TrEMBL record:
Gene: Cd4
Coiled-coil regions listed: none
Entry keyword set: Membrane, Transmembrane, Transmembrane helix
Top-rank lineage group of the source organism: Eukaryota
Protein name (database record): CD4 protein
Ig-like domain location: 265-329
InterPro entries linked to this entry: Ig-like_dom, Ig-like_dom_sf, Ig-like_fold, Tcell_CD4_Cterm
Amino acid sequence: RSEVKGPYKLLKVRNLELSDAGIYTCKYGSHKVHTSLHVFKLTISLGGHFLQNEVPELTLMHNSPHPLLDLRITLFNSNNNMVTPEIEKKDHQKYILNLKKLEATDSGTWVCHVHSDSPLINQNISFAVKVLGFQNPDLERKYATVDSTVILPWRLNFRKITWKEGFTGQLSWKQHESANSHDLLDFNITAQGEQHETKKRSHFLFEIPERKPENTIEVKLPQVHFNHSGQYQCQLTYKGRHVQSKIELVVMKVSANPVGPLSRGANMTLICQVSSLLPPNAHLLWERVNGTQRDIKNSKQYEAKLEVNISAAGLWSCHLIEGNDRKISLHYHVEEAAVWTSYVVTGASVVGSVLVFALVCLCIISGMQWQRRRQQAKRMAQARQYLLENKTCQCQQ
């Protein structure tokens, strides 16, 4: 593995090994020159191929003619930012470096800088790190209103980091943490980067968009229902190891009690509700469009339901606000009863009056008919009495 080259007697050693370290002596006549060769070997766990949130372990070994007592090790990530590892020193010739959890943005070329003052050593050792994962955060919250359309995307980074090995994945949904999980689709990515998806049989109504960005897993809910809320989880699997990214879908709905137009002088309760508890920096707000400050009501912290009692018709809006950002809004139009019921009330009054008049007439006619039948019966009784009296008189003669 070694050769001497050129007129200057250069010694070239290929494929250095730890055992190549030592003191090399060059003799020329009575002259001797000594050179110390220090050999470092850096290895990284899992061959440098990690999933998001995994913790890599670096092993730095060195062989030197003399112990390096003041060896200092510094790491720089792919963005050239200094990384402070947890160093576990085994002995003078071996160091174990434990890093923190990796993120998908940590993929790239890292540098391990080795420094010693005596003997003077300044050596950079570069190594590759590939982190397969999502460009989404581990947990993302998405808001939607009832009957709207929503697309839930997971952006993978396998093309960006030139990942050359195949892996699989699965998308599932559950309504809350302790509920049963329902599989929605399976997918696999080949070593050539080809993406294949298989929709699972489910009562859940969703679509896989035909057109979508590369490296993306998406599901589309064409008409969101309140019970579509919950956790949607995308999981990647590589050599028996897993990494997940979740999107929590929060759904909003509004309703009124009682339902229908608002009569003058009456009250109505408007109800705005979301499917899960809100984070500390989020709240619900009811307001009447073009209303006054008195027409505004805010929810308390962590409340998932906000009710407001109203006596004024018009367009009312419920907003979900996170921080200073208005995420979603739903509107409820409260109609005033007089606007559309006046004709109904007038018609009902007229019909009622006609019915009362008809009833009175019917009673009068029935009374008159009863009176006539009574008088007729009385006259017939008198006539029979008269005939009986006359017949009796004729018999006596």
